[in-house]
Amino acid sequence: MNEPEVPDHSIPENAGAATNAATTIQPKTRKKQSRSSTVSAEERQRILELRNHRYGMRAIALRLSRDRKTIRRILQEEGVLEHEVPQANKVDPFRDIIREKVGKP
After folding, report:
1. Closest by alpha carbon to 57, among 43, 38, 39, 70?
2. pLDDT digit string (tens) for 62-90?
3. Which of 90, 85, 60 is nearest to 75 (CA)?
4. Which residues contact 98 (CB under 8 A, 6 or more apart)?
5. pLDDT tens for residues 13-63?
6. What are phi and psi of 38, to 5 degrees?
7. Which of 29, 42, 68, 76 is in the most buried spot, having the most CB atoms within 10 Å?
8. Are 64 and 46 a contacting pair, CB within 8 Å?
9. What is d(CA 58, CA 62) in angstroms, rounded to the nearest whole number?
10. What is residue 5's predicted lDDT score, i.e. its pLDDT?
């Protein structure tokens, strides 16, 4: 009877040897996808509709199973997100009085 052939799983002789100094390891590079292609036009429209219904970014992200940063990027691209207006500081009403007392312009 013939015995079945058993594959040779032995380690090659040079497998444990140190790598050659001339060998360089190149980092893996990924081709970046165009950001606009990751979200369809229908999904963009749905994001805008939910935002118009006063849903927050996290709620939209949960409903559409998307990352909240993606939702934020889409809303910024569409011009929906307003830039934050700096809020009044508690010290603002007293700035002139403080400048007078300190003596700086």
Report:
1. 70
2. 999 999 999 999 999 999 887 666 778 88
3. 60
4. 91
5. 655 555 555 566 766 666 555 555 589 999 999 999 999 999 999 999 999
6. -80, -20
7. 68
8. yes
9. 6
10. 72
Among residues 69, 90, 88, 72, the alpha carbon closest in space to that of 80 is found at: 72
**Residues found in the chain:** 105
Look at residue 55 in the predicted model and tell me its pLDDT: 94
Task: Give the span between the Cα atoms of 78 and 75, in whole angstroms.
Answer: 5
Please state the φ and ψ torsions of residue 39, each to the nearest 5 degrees: -120, 125
Rounding to the nearest 10 degrees, give the CA dihedral for residues 92, 94, 98, 89: -20
Indicate the Cα dihedral angle 81, 86, 87, 88, nearest 10°. Answer: -160
What residue type is assigned to position 102 of the chain?
V
Contact between 53 and 80 (Cβ < 8 Å): no
DSSP label of 105 = -
Q: What is Dmax (Cα atoms) for the chain?
A: 108
